[in-house]
């Protein structure tokens, strides 16, 4: 990560390895196209896409959080990487040891 991204961060980041499932809202999301090519298209939404995030800790404890998808990008090896903002007003900070 470059220094520019580190400067823009509001909260410190801690590496975490845990089983995570997220459920994207089943509602229809309204969007607008930005551009299109033979390989796909870019869209913008008028409201954040919400998801329910379920985290299973090493102890087996399961915690759920309401989230908003803030960004997405393609990583190495064709994986997708998502940034989710926790919007629960009362959530505890995850303190999970790596599996």
3D architecture notes:
- With 99 residues, this protein is mainly beta.
- It has one domain (16-86).
- Helix content is 6%, strand content 47%.
- The protein has 1 helix and 6 strands.
- The strands form 2 sheets. The chain has a 4-stranded antiparallel β-sheet with strand order 1-4-5-6, with no helix packed on it. It has a two-stranded antiparallel ribbon with strand order 2-3.
- A hairpin with a 2-residue loop joins strand 2 (31-37) and strand 3 (40-45).
- The protein is globular.
Coarse structural class? mainly beta
Largest sheet: 4 strands, antiparallel
Task: Tell me roughly what share of residues is in helical segments.
Answer: under 10%
Query: How many DSSP-defined strands?
Result: 6
CA-atom Rg in angstroms: 16 Å
- The number of domains: 1
Strand order of the largest sheet: 1-4-5-6
Shape: globular
Annotation field: number of helices = 1
Order of helices and strands: HEEEEEE
Mean pLDDT comes to: 77
Which spans of ≥5 residues are poorly predicted at pLDDT below 50?
A: 95-99
Give the termini distance in whole angstroms: 24 Å
Give the percentage of residues in beta strands.
over 45%
Describe this structure in a few short sentences:
With 99 residues, the chain is mainly beta.
Layout of strands and helices, then pairs:
Blueprint: H1 3-8, E1 19-24, E2 31-37, E3 40-45, E4 49-56, E5 62-74, E6 80-86
